[in-house]
Amino acid sequence: MPAAVRATATRLALDSSTSAAIGVFLVGLLLWAAGGWTVLSDRDLYPAPAKLVLLCAALAIQLTAQRRPALAFGLMVALLAVDVPFGLSLPLWIALTDVIFLAVSTGSDRLGAVVGWFALLVTAGGALLALSQVGVRAGLYAALFGVALTWSPLGYARAVRASRRMVHAERDTRRAELAAHDAERSAAIGEERRRLARDLHDAVAGHVSAVAILAEVAQRDPGNVAVLQTIRASSLAAMEEMRSTIELLTAPDDVAVTTRLASLDGLIEAAEAAGGAVTLRQPPELRLPVTVEAVLTRILGETITNATKHAPGSPLDIDMHSDGKTLVVEAANPLPPDAPTGNGNGNGLRNMVFRAESVEGTVTAGSRDGSWRVRVRIPLGDR
């Protein structure tokens, strides 16, 4: 890989990690303000200055992990060990997910093995301790915490390492026979796979935050079955994202199936748990090429996520139709009275446009007649 490209990739990775660290800091402030700082709500012993110090310490450790992952992991484990007697602070455990990802994806193989044993110890030990001290329900919650907060980031970090090794191996074995164009194509494939892994990291981080917050709610209200179902849906969605990306990274070619429309079920369940209704209509005879289906699934996933986030409780209507040559998808949901009415230019919409353009399609989105509308047009051609 040319030095300029490698430097650019490194800078983008650092920018993404810094954004993740700041995001965890903001989530910690939100949990603090909402009274959900600690897993054990009746043992919140920290005064306000101590909480601010802990948040700043976690932020500093996450930023350190970008350059010195082993040191950052050790500092985070030490910070958690000090915190345990005071009731398990949720912001610190959420910060741990990012430190684990950076430690395994950028650290040595030995550090990766240490993190793996740590994840096993936390998950099994926490579940057994909760089971023996409280009961089966608490043991289940502890196991969910362990999987969401340690095994999920560990899994997609290993996928990133596998991607890098595969790209390096392909470049080394084909260097003698590939022309300059083929070498650039291999680098582009590697960069695309690393980008998909970063996308997965961002998606799973959202699921992890949701699981942590919902588990806190479930602990306060153990009889709330809807919360448990939402926790399960978020956990399964995160696992499905991770499994699909790992299949792509380990596939022998570039056309491996990354996602199917069926993988939207988890997002639809989460939207309905938030009080909304999602209606997805598609012709029963519709058969999409794997590339088009993967692109469409990502676009609709972003559409459902945005509707759930910005208009919770509002119905979302998605209609798909095709004349055999062009696929047209239209989605609409009513906007709350205080929702912004601009056409939007955030990362989500840019990613939707980029994915559509990758298969020569288009995406338009904006508010009209009190609803947020998304229109996708993708030519099917001879795919």
From TrEMBL:
Q: What is its EC number?
A: 2.7.13.3
Which catalytic reaction applies to this protein?
A: ATP + protein L-histidine = ADP + protein N-phospho-L-histidine
Enzyme class (EC, first level): transferase
Residue intervals of the Signal transduction histidine kinase subgroup 3 dimerisation and phosphoacceptor domain: 192-252
Keyword set, alphabetical order = ATP-binding, Kinase, Membrane, Nucleotide-binding, Phosphoprotein, Transferase, Transmembrane, Transmembrane helix, Two-component regulatory system
| Listed GO MF terms | kinase activity
Membrane spanning stretches: 12-33, 45-63, 70-94, 114-131, 138-156
Superkingdom classification of source = Bacteria
PANTHER family, alphabetized = NITRATE/NITRITE SENSOR PROTEIN NARX-RELATED, NITRATE_NITRITE SENSOR PROTEIN NARQ
Name the record gives this protein: histidine kinase
> What does UniProt list as this organism's lineage?
Bacteria, Bacillati, Actinomycetota, Actinomycetes, Mycobacteriales
